[in-house]
Structure formats: C-alpha cells, structure tokens
C-alpha cells in the first residue's frame, strides 16, 4: 500500500580530491572508515563501502553533514556509527536522507536524521532491504508516505531506543509506514502528522510496537496507529495516548487484518480511542 519501486542507485563519479577526504583503516568488508565532517566525504565513504562489500563508517562526533545532493543508496552491509552527528538536507531539491536497497543492510547508531523531503516514500529513511536504527532521532522529515522511516514489502526494520518526532506525510504513516516486518521497541513516536491515516504509524505488513510511547500525533483518521489490509499490528506494554484525528477513531484504527493490544494503554485520544474502527479493536475502551 505504501511503497513504490525502489529508486535507481545514485551514480557517483569519485574524483581524487573526494577520495582523499576519507581515511580508511583497512579495505576488507569489515573495514572501519573515519569520515571527516563533510557531506562529500560521507557520500564517498558510502560509495566505497558499497564497492568493497560493506564496512563500518565512523562519523565525526557532533558534526552536521549537510546534503545538497542525495547520498548513494546502501547496497551492501554497512554500519554508520554517527557519534551524535546530524545528517540533513540543505538543498531545495526534494530527496530523502538515507535509502537502503533490496541488497542493502544498514545499521545506524546515535544519529539525527532530519529535513528529508522524499517525493514518495521514506522522508528520513526508506528501507527496501534490512535496517536497524538504535539510539537515534528521526525528526522533521516529510514524504508522501512514511515521513520518518518506511519499510517496504519484504523488508526487515528494527528500531530501538529512538525518537521519531515531528515528521509529516501527505497520505499515511506520519512517523513510520510499514509494508514488511517492523519492530519498534523502547522508543517514542511523538507529534507526527498524516494527511490520511496513521499519524504515528501505518501498517499493512507485520508491525510490533513494544515499550513505546505513541503519543500526541495527528491524522485525518487514526492519529495514533492505523492497520490496513491483511496487516497485523501487535502493541505490547506501550502507550497510545492523546492522539487526535479529524475522523474517529483518534487512537487505533483497524481497517482490516488484526490488531492485538497486550498490557497497553489507549487513553485520551480524540474524538475516540478505538470506537469507529472498521474492525473492532479488542481490549480497547471507546
């Protein structure tokens, strides 16, 4: 429902000057590369890691990597240890911040991903392969679907200890949208907005939300969480509170498939918590 065909890989012409800005400690797939505080250096480091079959990129601590052009898609197994750096779009051109191709496997640690503006899917991160995000902030991004993080069909996405905030979409999934298999744990999905449904999260795959706050999001319908088609959404030991929608329900919508609430609270949503759902949500008060 949410994804489109993955974009073509960004072609990179790597000049000698760009190559010189990246200092690699080794060349195998497990190589660690120190990436200076430069968007060009980051782009080159990703391209080099893709070409060598993967690697570990260690960013300059506290740096802001301002992108005027898109980064290469992740096509191999890459870890980005951001060390509390920010990756942001500084151009008027529309593009998302990070994209993982079907062959790619990205682990992102301690990063802020912001100001992405994808024309279709995944304003912050578009995952078409395998993605793990830990200890990060995905905020103030925009797309048509999945403002913060999008997981396409057949993908695996794991989000741990991460804040997903103030992202917006024209249609569904202000914070996240999932067509694949996505698990969100020990995280916050707060103050995101969807013009359609699922201000916090929209799902038509398999979504599991554990020990997470999905609070104060907004949407046309289902400010908190929207489940579509044959999707399965399981919410465990979590809060879906104080979300708002123009059309009921304000908290959790099941438009088809299955929604399971286990030891979770769905409270204070407007105009309702779950009442008005196409398919009743068990264990949810109206």
Describe the overall structure.
This protein has 286 residues and is mostly beta strands. The protein has two helices and 30 strands. It has helices at residues 16-19, 39-51; strands at 23-24, 32-35, 54-59, 64-67, 77-89, 98-100, 105-114, 125-127, 130-134, 137-139, 142-143, 149-151, 156-160, 163-165, 168-169, 176-178, 181-185, 188-190, 193-197, 201-203, 206-210, 213-215, 218-221, 225-227, 232-236, 239-241, 244-247, 252-254, 258-262, 265-267. The strands form three sheets. It has an 18-stranded mixed beta sheet that branches. A hairpin with a 7-residue loop joins strand 1 (23-24) and strand 2.
In whole angstroms, how far apart are the ends?
28 Å
User: What is the count of β-strands?
Assistant: 30
Helix content: under 10%
What form results from the Cα inertia axes? elongated
Count of separate DSSP helical elements: 2
Structural class by helix and strand composition: mainly beta
Major sheet: 18 strands, mixed
Mean of residue pLDDT values: 92
**Beta-strand share of residues:** 35-45%
Spans of 5+ residues with little confidence (pLDDT < 50)?
4-29
Radius of gyration computed on alpha carbons: 19 Å
Topology:
Blueprint: H1 16-19, E1 23-24, E2 32-35, H2 39-51, E3 54-59, E4 64-67, E5 77-89, E6 98-100, E7 105-114, E8 125-127, E9 130-134, E10 137-139, E11 142-143, E12 149-151, E13 156-160, E14 163-165, E15 168-169, E16 176-178, E17 181-185, E18 188-190, E19 193-197, E20 201-203, E21 206-210, E22 213-215, E23 218-221, E24 225-227, E25 232-236, E26 239-241, E27 244-247, E28 252-254, E29 258-262, E30 265-267
Parallel strand pairs: 2-3, 3-5, 4-5, 5-7, 6-8, 7-9, 7-10, 8-12, 9-13, 10-14, 11-15, 12-16, 13-17, 14-18, 15-19, 16-20, 17-21, 18-22, 19-23, 20-24, 21-25, 22-26, 23-27, 24-28, 25-29, 26-30
Antiparallel strand pairs: 1-2
